[in-house]
Amino acid sequence: MVEATVPRVVSILSALLQRVAERNDAAAAAEEEERAMTAAAGLTKPAISIGGYLERIFRFASCSPSCYVVAYIYLDRFLRRRPALAVDSFNVHRLLITSVLTAVKFVDDICYNNAYFARVGGISLVEMNYLEVDFLFGIAFDLNVTPSAFASYCGVLQSEMAYLDPPTPMDAPRLHCYSTGASDQHDDHTATGAGCHRHNQHQPQLTV
Predict the structure, then answer these.
(1) Cα distances (angstroms) measured from residue 183 to each of 6, 7, 76, 179
(2) Which of 103, 134, 144, 169 could lock onto 70 through a cystine, CB 3.0 to 4.6 A?
(3) What is the CATH classification number for the domain harbouring 58?
(4) Where is this region: Disordered (predicted)?
(5) Among the listed residues 185, 178, 182, the one whose alpha carbon sits nearest the alpha carbon of residue 153
(6) Does residue 182 sit within a domain?
(7) Do residues 50 and 19 lie in contact, with contact meaning Cβ atoms separated by under 8 Å?
(8) Interior CA angle at 143 toward 129 and 88, to 5°?
(9) Number of structural domains, the chain?
(10) Can you give the residue range of the structural domain that contains 28?
């Protein structure tokens, strides 16, 4: 059986979070006593890379590409409500599996249960359930995503792709993001945190 090709959004999101985690790891090493500890923080750094982890989620969880954009939106909302929390190598994997789990339940018609996601994420079912509840309260159960917010975050990921792979005049790659179809009334405002490299002055600056 031929394996499905990993969507570009997965590699872009993993590269973005890898850069953020590495920068915050360096800051934490300088000021270890100030590193925020939450339910998502692990005791050791997982051996699997962020990219490898997201690809594992893609291959085994069968999420639609839109789920990764929505997971990114949820993660940004979570971090904006917890400004003391920095994405680093100790928590990024748990934040990812939890945000994707939350997104797939809201976006996709069919999804696996928490026990399956726990196995995919390499954690226990008890921890998966706890992380989900903590995450939902962390975003104040703000799950709706407007088409304009979805398009805005797609633009950020598009900018990230341009940063990773500068296009030539004859080759201008595009990140194809698809609307979730959500009829929500929430209108995201861009965050002012400094967690994401800002490639374009007209792009929103996000927490991650």
Answers:
(1) 28, 25, 20, 11
(2) 103
(3) 1.10.472.10
(4) 186-208
(5) 178
(6) no
(7) no
(8) 60
(9) 1
(10) 8-138
Q: Is 116 within a domain? A: yes
| 49 found inside a domain | yes
Q: Count CB neighbours of 139 within 10 A.
A: 20
> Which residue type sits at 53?
Y
Q: Is the pTM of this model over 0.90?
A: no
Cβ atoms within 10 A of the Cβ of 72, count?
Answer: 25
Q: Look at residue 168 and tell me if it is in a domain.
A: no
Angle between helices 65-81 and 147-164 (to 10 degrees): 100
Closest Cα partner for 12 from 68, 64, 76, 81? 68
Residues 6+ apart with CB under 8 A from 5: none
Q: Which two tokens stand for residue 126?
A: 């008890």
Q: Which residues contact residue 120 at a Cβ distance below 8 angstroms, ignoring those fewer than 6 apart? A: 56, 57, 60, 61, 97, 112
Q: Which of 88, 98, 80 is nearest to 32 (CA)?
A: 88
What's residue 197's pLDDT? 32
Task: Note down pLDDT in tens along the chain; length 208 residues.
Answer: 546 787 888 888 888 888 888 888 777 665 554 445 555 655 567 889 999 999 999 999 988 999 999 999 999 999 999 988 888 888 999 999 999 999 999 999 888 999 999 999 999 999 999 999 999 999 999 999 999 999 999 998 888 887 776 655 555 444 444 433 333 444 444 433 323 333 333 333 345 5
Count of residues making up the chain: 208
